[in-house]
Amino acid sequence: MGDPVGSAAGQPAGEDGGSRKGTGRRGTPGAAPGPDGSGGPGGGAGAGGARAAHGRRGPVVAALMLSMALPALDSTAVSTAVPQVVADLGGFSVFSWLFSGYLLAVTVTLPVYGKLSDTVGRKPVLIAGAVLFLAGSLLCALAWNMGSLIAFRVVQGLGGGALQGTVQTVAADLYPLRERPRIQAKLSTVWATSSVAGPALGGLLATYADWRWIFLVNLPVGAVALWLIGRHLHEPVRESGARLGRVDWPGALAVFACGGVLLTALVQGGVAWPWLSGPSAALFGTGLALAALVVVVERRAAEPIVPGWVWRRRTIAAVNLSLGALGLLMVAPTVFLPTYAQSVLGLSPVAAGFVLSVWTLSWPVSAALSQHLYRRIGFRDTALVGIGTAALILLAFPFLPYPGAAWQPMLLMLLLGAALGIFQLPLIVGVQSTVGWAERGTATASVLFCRQTGQTVGAAVFGAIANGVLAARLGGAGDLDSVTRSLNAGVTSAATRRAVADAVHAVYLGAAVAAAVAFVTLLLLAPRRFAVLKE
Questions:
Q1: Per-residue pLDDT reduced to its tens digit, 270-283
Q2: Any idea which architecture 1-30+310-535 has in CATH?
Q3: How far is CA 531 from the centre of its chain?
Q4: Residue 413 to residue 415: CA distance in whole angstroms
Q5: For domain 32-238, which architecture applies?
Q6: Of 137, 246, 273, 518, whose CB neighbour count within 10 A is largest?
Protein backbone atom coordinates (compact mmCIF):
# COMPACT_ATOMS: atom_id res chain seq x y z
CA MET A 1 0.00 0.00 0.00
CA GLY A 2 1.37 3.42 -0.94
CA ASP A 3 1.95 6.22 1.52
CA PRO A 4 -0.91 8.78 1.25
CA VAL A 5 1.44 11.66 1.98
CA GLY A 6 4.08 10.57 -0.48
CA SER A 7 4.46 8.15 -3.34
CA ALA A 8 4.80 4.41 -3.14
CA ALA A 9 8.47 4.73 -3.98
CA GLY A 10 9.07 7.13 -1.11
CA GLN A 11 9.50 10.25 -3.28
CA PRO A 12 7.56 13.07 -1.62
CA ALA A 13 4.61 14.67 -3.30
CA GLY A 14 4.63 18.47 -3.12
CA GLU A 15 1.55 20.62 -2.66
CA ASP A 16 1.38 20.96 -6.40
CA GLY A 17 1.88 17.27 -6.97
CA GLY A 18 5.56 17.64 -7.83
CA SER A 19 8.45 16.25 -5.84
CA ARG A 20 10.66 17.93 -3.30
CA LYS A 21 14.12 16.93 -2.20
CA GLY A 22 15.95 17.92 0.95
CA THR A 23 18.82 19.96 -0.39
CA GLY A 24 20.48 23.27 0.34
CA ARG A 25 19.73 24.64 3.78
CA ARG A 26 17.47 21.71 4.53
CA GLY A 27 20.41 19.36 4.59
CA THR A 28 21.35 16.52 2.32
CA PRO A 29 19.67 13.38 3.62
CA GLY A 30 21.90 10.36 3.42
CA ALA A 31 25.11 12.39 3.16
CA ALA A 32 26.18 12.31 6.79
CA PRO A 33 25.63 10.19 9.89
CA GLY A 34 22.44 10.91 11.82
CA PRO A 35 22.10 11.27 15.57
CA ASP A 36 22.07 7.51 15.97
CA GLY A 37 25.35 7.19 14.12
CA SER A 38 23.95 5.99 10.81
CA GLY A 39 22.06 7.31 7.86
CA GLY A 40 21.56 10.95 7.01
CA PRO A 41 20.44 14.01 8.89
CA GLY A 42 16.89 12.90 8.43
CA GLY A 43 17.51 10.03 10.76
CA GLY A 44 18.60 7.19 8.50
CA ALA A 45 19.34 6.33 4.92
CA GLY A 46 16.05 4.60 4.41
CA ALA A 47 14.16 2.01 6.38
CA GLY A 48 16.94 -0.54 6.23
CA GLY A 49 19.46 1.86 7.74
CA ALA A 50 17.00 2.79 10.46
CA ARG A 51 16.37 -0.84 11.37
CA ALA A 52 20.09 -1.60 11.44
CA ALA A 53 20.69 1.27 13.85
CA HIS A 54 17.79 0.40 16.12
CA GLY A 55 19.98 -1.22 18.74
CA ARG A 56 22.20 1.85 18.99
CA ARG A 57 19.20 4.14 19.37
CA GLY A 58 18.12 2.56 22.64
CA PRO A 59 20.36 4.59 25.00
CA VAL A 60 19.49 7.84 23.19
CA VAL A 61 15.76 7.10 23.47
CA ALA A 62 16.24 6.38 27.19
CA ALA A 63 18.03 9.72 27.55
CA LEU A 64 15.19 11.52 25.76
CA MET A 65 12.56 9.93 27.98
CA LEU A 66 14.49 10.80 31.14
CA SER A 67 15.02 14.37 29.88
CA MET A 68 11.30 14.71 29.18
CA ALA A 69 10.45 13.24 32.58
CA LEU A 70 12.37 15.98 34.39
CA PRO A 71 10.00 18.89 33.58
CA ALA A 72 6.94 16.61 33.39
CA LEU A 73 7.32 15.15 36.89
CA ASP A 74 8.57 18.36 38.44
CA SER A 75 5.62 20.50 37.35
CA THR A 76 2.96 18.08 38.55
CA ALA A 77 4.74 17.28 41.82
CA VAL A 78 5.19 20.93 42.82
CA SER A 79 1.47 21.65 42.49
CA THR A 80 0.69 19.07 45.20
CA ALA A 81 3.19 20.51 47.67
CA VAL A 82 2.05 24.15 47.50
CA PRO A 83 0.46 24.15 51.02
CA GLN A 84 3.70 22.88 52.58
CA VAL A 85 5.80 25.34 50.56
CA VAL A 86 3.64 28.29 51.63
CA ALA A 87 3.64 27.15 55.25
CA ASP A 88 7.44 27.03 55.21
CA LEU A 89 8.33 30.08 53.10
CA GLY A 90 5.21 32.28 53.25
CA GLY A 91 4.29 34.38 50.24
CA PHE A 92 0.77 33.03 49.67
CA SER A 93 -0.20 36.12 47.64
CA VAL A 94 2.43 35.40 44.97
CA PHE A 95 2.73 31.61 45.02
CA SER A 96 0.97 31.34 41.63
CA TRP A 97 4.19 32.68 40.11
CA LEU A 98 5.80 29.34 40.95
CA PHE A 99 3.91 28.10 37.89
CA SER A 100 3.48 31.28 35.87
CA GLY A 101 7.18 32.14 36.02
CA TYR A 102 8.17 28.66 34.93
CA LEU A 103 5.62 28.67 32.09
CA LEU A 104 6.77 32.06 30.85
CA ALA A 105 10.42 30.99 30.78
CA VAL A 106 9.64 27.77 28.89
CA THR A 107 7.39 29.45 26.35
CA VAL A 108 9.55 32.42 25.41
CA THR A 109 12.72 30.34 25.06
CA LEU A 110 11.26 27.65 22.77
CA PRO A 111 11.87 29.53 19.48
CA VAL A 112 15.35 30.56 20.65
CA TYR A 113 16.41 27.01 21.48
CA GLY A 114 14.81 25.69 18.30
CA LYS A 115 16.95 27.96 16.14
CA LEU A 116 20.04 27.26 18.23
CA SER A 117 19.61 23.51 17.75
CA ASP A 118 19.56 24.05 13.98
CA THR A 119 22.60 26.36 14.17
CA VAL A 120 24.98 24.77 16.67
CA GLY A 121 23.46 21.29 16.91
CA ARG A 122 21.03 19.38 19.11
CA LYS A 123 23.56 17.95 21.56
CA PRO A 124 24.96 21.24 22.94
CA VAL A 125 21.46 22.67 23.38
CA LEU A 126 20.16 19.51 25.07
CA ILE A 127 23.14 19.35 27.45
CA ALA A 128 22.92 23.07 28.25
CA GLY A 129 19.18 22.75 28.91
CA ALA A 130 19.64 19.77 31.22
CA VAL A 131 22.45 21.48 33.16
CA LEU A 132 20.39 24.65 33.52
CA PHE A 133 17.32 22.71 34.67
CA LEU A 134 19.35 20.76 37.24
CA ALA A 135 21.05 23.94 38.49
CA GLY A 136 17.62 25.50 38.90
CA SER A 137 16.41 22.39 40.76
CA LEU A 138 19.32 22.55 43.21
CA LEU A 139 18.74 26.26 43.77
CA CYS A 140 15.00 25.66 44.33
CA ALA A 141 15.87 23.13 47.04
CA LEU A 142 18.03 25.80 48.72
CA ALA A 143 15.44 28.62 48.43
CA TRP A 144 15.05 30.74 51.58
CA ASN A 145 11.82 32.60 50.74
CA MET A 146 9.07 32.63 48.13
CA GLY A 147 10.80 35.28 46.02
CA SER A 148 13.98 33.23 45.69
CA LEU A 149 11.99 30.07 44.92
CA ILE A 150 10.10 31.86 42.13
CA ALA A 151 13.37 33.18 40.69
CA PHE A 152 14.92 29.71 40.72
CA ARG A 153 11.80 28.24 39.12
CA VAL A 154 12.40 30.69 36.26
CA VAL A 155 15.93 29.27 35.97
CA GLN A 156 14.37 25.81 35.76
CA GLY A 157 12.07 27.07 33.02
CA LEU A 158 15.01 28.39 31.01
CA GLY A 159 16.34 24.83 30.98
CA GLY A 160 12.92 23.27 30.50
CA GLY A 161 12.40 25.15 27.25
CA ALA A 162 15.55 23.57 25.82
CA LEU A 163 14.52 20.10 26.99
CA GLN A 164 10.97 20.15 25.65
CA GLY A 165 11.76 21.45 22.18
CA THR A 166 15.06 19.67 21.57
CA VAL A 167 13.85 16.27 22.80
CA GLN A 168 11.04 16.38 20.23
CA THR A 169 13.50 17.39 17.51
CA VAL A 170 16.03 14.64 18.29
CA ALA A 171 13.17 12.12 18.36
CA ALA A 172 12.30 13.10 14.78
CA ASP A 173 15.98 12.92 13.78
CA LEU A 174 16.30 9.39 15.12
CA TYR A 175 13.36 7.79 13.34
CA PRO A 176 12.19 7.84 9.72
CA LEU A 177 8.60 8.82 9.02
CA ARG A 178 7.08 5.34 9.31
CA GLU A 179 8.65 4.79 12.74
CA ARG A 180 8.13 8.22 14.31
CA PRO A 181 4.81 7.35 16.01
CA ARG A 182 6.77 4.82 18.09
CA ILE A 183 9.00 7.40 19.75
CA GLN A 184 6.25 10.03 19.95
CA ALA A 185 4.01 7.52 21.72
CA LYS A 186 6.82 6.83 24.21
CA LEU A 187 7.23 10.53 24.91
CA SER A 188 3.45 10.90 25.31
CA THR A 189 3.55 8.02 27.78
CA VAL A 190 6.15 9.91 29.83
CA TRP A 191 3.76 12.85 30.18
CA ALA A 192 0.82 10.56 30.89
CA THR A 193 2.71 8.67 33.60
CA SER A 194 4.00 11.90 35.11
CA SER A 195 0.50 13.40 35.35
CA VAL A 196 -0.53 10.44 37.52
CA ALA A 197 2.69 9.77 39.42
CA GLY A 198 3.77 13.39 39.88
CA PRO A 199 1.03 14.49 42.30
CA ALA A 200 1.43 11.26 44.29
CA LEU A 201 5.20 11.71 44.48
CA GLY A 202 4.87 15.35 45.47
CA GLY A 203 2.34 14.54 48.17
CA LEU A 204 4.46 11.73 49.62
CA LEU A 205 7.65 13.77 49.71
CA ALA A 206 5.93 16.85 51.14
CA THR A 207 4.16 14.79 53.81
CA TYR A 208 6.79 12.28 54.89
CA ALA A 209 10.06 14.00 53.97
CA ASP A 210 10.34 17.64 52.91
CA TRP A 211 9.06 19.55 49.88
CA ARG A 212 12.67 20.36 48.92
CA TRP A 213 13.17 16.72 47.94
CA ILE A 214 10.79 17.29 45.02
CA PHE A 215 13.60 19.28 43.42
CA LEU A 216 16.50 17.17 44.70
CA VAL A 217 15.20 13.94 43.11
CA ASN A 218 15.73 15.62 39.74
CA LEU A 219 19.50 15.51 40.23
CA PRO A 220 20.18 11.76 39.90
CA VAL A 221 17.65 11.40 37.07
CA GLY A 222 19.20 14.31 35.22
CA ALA A 223 22.73 13.00 35.82
CA VAL A 224 21.85 9.70 34.14
CA ALA A 225 20.23 11.54 31.22
CA LEU A 226 23.31 13.75 30.80
CA TRP A 227 25.63 10.75 30.82
CA LEU A 228 23.56 8.95 28.18
CA ILE A 229 23.38 12.06 25.99
CA GLY A 230 27.11 12.74 26.25
CA ARG A 231 28.07 9.14 25.49
CA HIS A 232 25.52 8.03 22.90
CA LEU A 233 24.07 11.06 21.06
CA HIS A 234 26.21 11.81 17.99
CA GLU A 235 25.65 14.84 15.78
CA PRO A 236 25.58 14.70 11.98
CA VAL A 237 29.01 15.29 10.49
CA ARG A 238 29.07 18.63 8.69
CA GLU A 239 30.17 18.62 5.09
CA SER A 240 33.72 19.90 4.50
CA GLY A 241 33.69 23.65 4.08
CA ALA A 242 30.25 24.02 5.67
CA ARG A 243 29.98 27.25 7.68
CA LEU A 244 28.60 27.22 11.20
CA GLY A 245 25.58 29.53 11.19
CA ARG A 246 25.71 32.76 13.15
CA VAL A 247 23.54 33.03 16.22
CA ASP A 248 21.10 35.95 16.12
CA TRP A 249 21.56 37.10 19.71
CA PRO A 250 19.80 40.49 19.24
CA GLY A 251 16.82 38.63 17.81
CA ALA A 252 16.88 36.11 20.65
CA LEU A 253 16.86 38.90 23.23
CA ALA A 254 14.07 40.76 21.43
CA VAL A 255 11.92 37.59 21.17
CA PHE A 256 12.53 36.80 24.84
CA ALA A 257 11.61 40.31 25.98
CA CYS A 258 8.53 40.55 23.77
CA GLY A 259 7.21 37.13 24.76
CA GLY A 260 7.90 37.72 28.43
CA VAL A 261 6.05 41.05 28.55
CA LEU A 262 3.00 39.88 26.56
CA LEU A 263 2.67 36.59 28.43
CA THR A 264 3.01 38.39 31.77
CA ALA A 265 0.17 40.69 30.71
CA LEU A 266 -2.00 37.67 29.87
CA VAL A 267 -1.10 35.69 32.99
CA GLN A 268 -1.59 38.54 35.48
CA GLY A 269 -4.42 40.41 33.76
CA GLY A 270 -7.65 39.99 35.70
CA VAL A 271 -5.70 38.42 38.59
CA ALA A 272 -3.14 40.87 39.96
CA TRP A 273 -4.91 43.85 38.38
CA PRO A 274 -8.06 44.47 36.28
CA TRP A 275 -7.88 44.06 32.52
CA LEU A 276 -8.87 47.69 32.01
CA SER A 277 -6.15 49.21 34.16
CA GLY A 278 -2.88 51.08 33.92
CA PRO A 279 -0.61 48.03 34.41
CA SER A 280 -2.44 46.03 31.71
CA ALA A 281 -2.30 48.92 29.25
CA ALA A 282 1.39 49.50 29.98
CA LEU A 283 2.32 45.83 29.52
CA PHE A 284 0.31 45.33 26.34
CA GLY A 285 1.62 48.59 24.90
CA THR A 286 5.21 47.63 25.71
CA GLY A 287 4.65 44.16 24.28
CA LEU A 288 3.33 45.52 20.99
CA ALA A 289 6.29 47.91 20.74
CA LEU A 290 8.68 45.02 21.35
CA ALA A 291 6.83 42.94 18.74
CA ALA A 292 7.50 45.69 16.19
CA LEU A 293 11.15 45.65 17.28
CA VAL A 294 11.29 41.86 16.75
CA VAL A 295 10.04 42.28 13.18
CA VAL A 296 12.68 44.94 12.44
CA VAL A 297 15.54 42.97 14.00
CA GLU A 298 14.57 39.67 12.40
CA ARG A 299 14.24 41.18 8.92
CA ARG A 300 17.82 42.42 9.12
CA ALA A 301 19.29 39.22 10.64
CA ALA A 302 21.20 36.81 8.41
CA GLU A 303 19.94 33.83 10.48
CA PRO A 304 16.80 35.07 12.29
CA ILE A 305 15.56 33.30 15.40
CA VAL A 306 12.01 33.39 14.00
CA PRO A 307 12.53 33.01 10.23
CA GLY A 308 9.78 34.15 7.91
CA TRP A 309 9.45 30.75 6.24
CA VAL A 310 7.79 29.40 9.40
CA TRP A 311 4.71 31.45 8.51
CA ARG A 312 5.08 31.58 4.72
CA ARG A 313 4.76 27.82 4.31
CA ARG A 314 1.11 26.82 4.34
CA THR A 315 1.65 23.53 6.14
CA ILE A 316 3.63 24.91 9.07
CA ALA A 317 1.48 28.04 9.43
CA ALA A 318 -1.74 26.00 9.47
CA VAL A 319 -0.35 23.54 12.03
CA ASN A 320 0.95 26.36 14.23
CA LEU A 321 -2.46 28.04 14.32
CA SER A 322 -4.28 24.74 14.87
CA LEU A 323 -2.06 23.69 17.77
CA GLY A 324 -2.41 27.17 19.24
CA ALA A 325 -6.15 26.45 19.35
CA LEU A 326 -5.35 23.04 20.91
CA GLY A 327 -3.41 24.74 23.70
CA LEU A 328 -6.34 27.06 24.28
CA LEU A 329 -8.97 24.32 24.51
CA MET A 330 -6.79 22.15 26.79
CA VAL A 331 -7.23 24.78 29.51
CA ALA A 332 -10.90 23.82 29.96
CA PRO A 333 -10.27 20.35 31.42
CA THR A 334 -6.86 20.89 33.00
CA VAL A 335 -7.76 24.07 34.93
CA PHE A 336 -11.51 23.91 35.50
CA LEU A 337 -12.47 20.22 35.65
CA PRO A 338 -10.86 19.55 39.07
CA THR A 339 -12.83 22.47 40.59
CA TYR A 340 -16.00 21.14 38.92
CA ALA A 341 -15.36 17.64 40.27
CA GLN A 342 -14.87 18.88 43.83
CA SER A 343 -17.59 21.52 44.07
CA VAL A 344 -20.31 20.04 41.85
CA LEU A 345 -19.70 16.30 42.15
CA GLY A 346 -18.49 16.48 45.76
CA LEU A 347 -15.31 14.48 45.16
CA SER A 348 -12.11 14.65 47.19
CA PRO A 349 -9.05 16.34 45.64
CA VAL A 350 -7.49 12.95 44.89
CA ALA A 351 -10.63 11.63 43.21
CA ALA A 352 -11.03 14.89 41.29
CA GLY A 353 -7.49 14.51 39.99
CA PHE A 354 -8.31 11.01 38.81
CA VAL A 355 -11.32 12.30 36.84
CA LEU A 356 -8.91 14.52 34.93
CA SER A 357 -6.08 12.01 34.59
CA VAL A 358 -8.08 9.43 32.63
CA TRP A 359 -7.48 11.35 29.41
CA THR A 360 -3.77 10.67 29.80
CA LEU A 361 -4.58 6.97 29.41
CA SER A 362 -6.29 7.25 26.03
CA TRP A 363 -4.16 10.06 24.56
CA PRO A 364 -0.87 8.10 24.05
CA VAL A 365 -2.73 4.98 22.91
CA SER A 366 -4.66 6.81 20.18
CA ALA A 367 -1.50 8.73 19.24
CA ALA A 368 0.39 5.49 18.71
CA LEU A 369 -2.45 4.05 16.62
CA SER A 370 -2.95 7.20 14.56
CA GLN A 371 -0.29 6.11 12.05
CA HIS A 372 -2.65 3.44 10.73
CA LEU A 373 -5.13 6.19 9.89
CA TYR A 374 -2.82 8.86 8.46
CA ARG A 375 -1.10 6.32 6.22
CA ARG A 376 -4.48 5.79 4.59
CA ILE A 377 -6.02 9.26 4.51
CA GLY A 378 -3.07 11.60 5.18
CA PHE A 379 -1.93 13.85 8.00
CA ARG A 380 -4.45 16.64 7.52
CA ASP A 381 -7.55 14.49 7.21
CA THR A 382 -6.55 12.39 10.24
CA ALA A 383 -6.15 15.56 12.29
CA LEU A 384 -9.54 16.77 11.05
CA VAL A 385 -11.16 13.57 12.29
CA GLY A 386 -9.54 14.03 15.69
CA ILE A 387 -10.36 17.68 16.24
CA GLY A 388 -13.87 17.33 14.80
CA THR A 389 -14.58 14.52 17.28
CA ALA A 390 -13.03 16.59 20.10
CA ALA A 391 -15.35 19.52 19.29
CA LEU A 392 -18.41 17.27 19.62
CA ILE A 393 -17.15 15.83 22.93
CA LEU A 394 -16.50 19.29 24.37
CA LEU A 395 -19.92 20.41 23.17
CA ALA A 396 -21.51 17.47 25.01
CA PHE A 397 -20.11 18.48 28.41
CA PRO A 398 -22.70 21.24 29.14
CA PHE A 399 -25.45 18.67 28.56
CA LEU A 400 -24.33 16.43 31.41
CA PRO A 401 -27.02 16.07 34.09
CA TYR A 402 -26.72 18.17 37.24
CA PRO A 403 -25.14 17.25 39.57
CA GLY A 404 -24.49 13.95 37.79
CA ALA A 405 -22.10 11.11 38.56
CA ALA A 406 -18.31 11.02 38.35
CA TRP A 407 -18.25 8.41 35.57
CA GLN A 408 -19.94 10.82 33.14
CA PRO A 409 -17.16 13.46 32.90
CA MET A 410 -14.61 10.64 33.16
CA LEU A 411 -16.06 9.01 30.06
CA LEU A 412 -15.97 12.29 28.17
CA MET A 413 -12.34 12.87 29.23
CA LEU A 414 -11.38 9.36 28.10
CA LEU A 415 -12.94 10.04 24.69
CA LEU A 416 -11.42 13.53 24.52
CA GLY A 417 -7.93 12.17 25.13
CA ALA A 418 -8.40 9.64 22.33
CA ALA A 419 -9.61 12.35 19.94
CA LEU A 420 -6.78 14.76 20.71
CA GLY A 421 -4.21 11.98 20.37
CA ILE A 422 -5.13 11.45 16.72
CA PHE A 423 -5.23 15.21 16.21
CA GLN A 424 -1.90 16.36 17.63
CA LEU A 425 0.56 13.60 16.73
CA PRO A 426 -0.10 13.50 12.96
CA LEU A 427 0.41 17.27 12.78
CA ILE A 428 3.71 17.21 14.67
CA VAL A 429 5.02 14.24 12.70
CA GLY A 430 3.76 15.78 9.47
CA VAL A 431 5.51 19.12 10.03
CA GLN A 432 8.76 17.44 11.06
CA SER A 433 8.63 15.36 7.89
CA THR A 434 8.31 18.38 5.59
CA VAL A 435 11.64 19.90 6.66
CA GLY A 436 15.23 18.70 6.64
CA TRP A 437 17.64 18.40 9.54
CA ALA A 438 18.79 22.03 9.29
CA GLU A 439 15.23 23.36 9.80
CA ARG A 440 13.63 20.73 12.00
CA GLY A 441 14.51 22.35 15.32
CA THR A 442 13.01 25.68 14.30
CA ALA A 443 9.87 24.07 12.87
CA THR A 444 9.34 21.88 15.95
CA ALA A 445 9.89 24.80 18.32
CA SER A 446 7.39 26.96 16.43
CA VAL A 447 4.72 24.29 16.84
CA LEU A 448 5.39 23.86 20.57
CA PHE A 449 5.60 27.63 21.08
CA CYS A 450 2.17 28.16 19.53
CA ARG A 451 0.65 25.42 21.67
CA GLN A 452 2.17 26.88 24.85
CA THR A 453 1.04 30.38 23.90
CA GLY A 454 -2.46 29.03 23.28
CA GLN A 455 -2.53 27.64 26.81
CA THR A 456 -1.52 30.99 28.25
CA VAL A 457 -4.16 32.82 26.22
CA GLY A 458 -6.72 30.17 27.14
CA ALA A 459 -6.05 30.56 30.87
CA ALA A 460 -6.66 34.30 30.59
CA VAL A 461 -9.73 34.08 28.33
CA PHE A 462 -11.47 31.19 30.06
CA GLY A 463 -10.63 32.59 33.49
CA ALA A 464 -12.41 35.79 32.52
CA ILE A 465 -15.40 33.81 31.19
CA ALA A 466 -15.65 31.67 34.33
CA ASN A 467 -15.37 34.66 36.66
CA GLY A 468 -17.97 36.54 34.64
CA VAL A 469 -20.49 33.70 34.87
CA LEU A 470 -19.82 33.21 38.59
CA ALA A 471 -20.29 36.91 39.27
CA ALA A 472 -23.57 36.93 37.32
CA ARG A 473 -24.91 33.84 39.09
CA LEU A 474 -23.80 34.93 42.58
CA GLY A 475 -24.76 38.58 42.28
CA GLY A 476 -21.21 39.84 41.86
CA ALA A 477 -20.12 38.21 45.10
CA GLY A 478 -17.94 35.43 43.75
CA ASP A 479 -15.11 34.46 41.48
CA LEU A 480 -12.98 31.37 40.89
CA ASP A 481 -10.54 32.28 43.67
CA SER A 482 -13.32 32.57 46.24
CA VAL A 483 -14.74 29.22 45.14
CA THR A 484 -11.31 27.62 45.56
CA ARG A 485 -10.99 29.05 49.06
CA SER A 486 -14.45 27.71 49.91
CA LEU A 487 -13.44 24.26 48.71
CA ASN A 488 -10.28 24.33 50.82
CA ALA A 489 -12.39 25.34 53.83
CA GLY A 490 -14.89 22.58 53.14
CA VAL A 491 -17.79 25.02 52.72
CA THR A 492 -19.64 25.18 49.40
CA SER A 493 -23.28 26.26 49.20
CA ALA A 494 -25.82 24.86 46.75
CA ALA A 495 -25.93 28.19 44.92
CA THR A 496 -22.16 28.17 44.54
CA ARG A 497 -22.18 24.59 43.22
CA ARG A 498 -24.76 25.51 40.60
CA ALA A 499 -22.83 28.64 39.64
CA VAL A 500 -19.62 26.62 39.22
CA ALA A 501 -21.44 24.14 36.99
CA ASP A 502 -22.72 26.97 34.78
CA ALA A 503 -19.26 28.58 34.66
CA VAL A 504 -17.51 25.36 33.65
CA HIS A 505 -20.21 24.66 31.07
CA ALA A 506 -19.51 28.07 29.53
CA VAL A 507 -15.78 27.32 29.49
CA TYR A 508 -16.35 24.00 27.72
CA LEU A 509 -18.52 25.74 25.13
CA GLY A 510 -15.61 28.12 24.55
CA ALA A 511 -13.27 25.15 24.21
CA ALA A 512 -15.61 23.62 21.61
CA VAL A 513 -15.42 26.89 19.67
CA ALA A 514 -11.60 26.70 19.82
CA ALA A 515 -11.76 23.15 18.44
CA ALA A 516 -14.01 24.34 15.64
CA VAL A 517 -11.51 27.11 14.83
CA ALA A 518 -8.74 24.52 14.61
CA PHE A 519 -10.91 22.39 12.30
CA VAL A 520 -11.66 25.29 9.95
CA THR A 521 -8.03 26.43 9.97
CA LEU A 522 -6.78 23.01 8.91
CA LEU A 523 -9.53 22.59 6.34
CA LEU A 524 -8.92 25.93 4.64
CA LEU A 525 -5.18 26.52 5.09
CA ALA A 526 -3.42 23.16 5.26
CA PRO A 527 -2.73 21.27 2.01
CA ARG A 528 -4.48 17.94 1.82
CA ARG A 529 -1.17 16.17 1.13
CA PHE A 530 1.85 17.32 3.14
CA ALA A 531 5.02 17.72 1.06
CA VAL A 532 7.10 15.06 2.81
CA LEU A 533 10.84 15.15 2.11
CA LYS A 534 12.67 12.09 0.87
CA GLU A 535 14.60 10.42 3.69
A1: 767 787 888 889 99
A2: Up-down Bundle (1.20)
A3: 24
A4: 5
A5: Up-down Bundle (1.20)
A6: 518
